[in-house]
């Protein structure tokens, strides 16, 4: 049940199998559209679409200020020195 973040790979796999496993048309003359394939695709898309919601997130001022005031490291040399402090060779 929403809210959740679905694993997109599952839905893409379903869509791939539907696309590869079913023909677009039921006959050689391409006159009759395969509506069963369209229905299966719509079921997968509808299920995925149910997770699209508008989330109302509030900003946390203290965290926002902290992140905005973090010093930035410009040179590769300084980044390397800091990385050696965190994790020596």
TrEMBL record:
GO terms for molecular function: guanyl-nucleotide exchange factor activity. It comes from the Eukaryota. SUPFAM superfamilies: Ras GEF. Coiled coil: none annotated. The keyword DNA-binding does not apply. Residues 1-89 form the Ras-GEF domain. Keywords: Guanine-nucleotide releasing factor. GO terms for biological process: small GTPase-mediated signal transduction. Pfam families: RasGEF. This is Ras-GEF domain-containing protein.
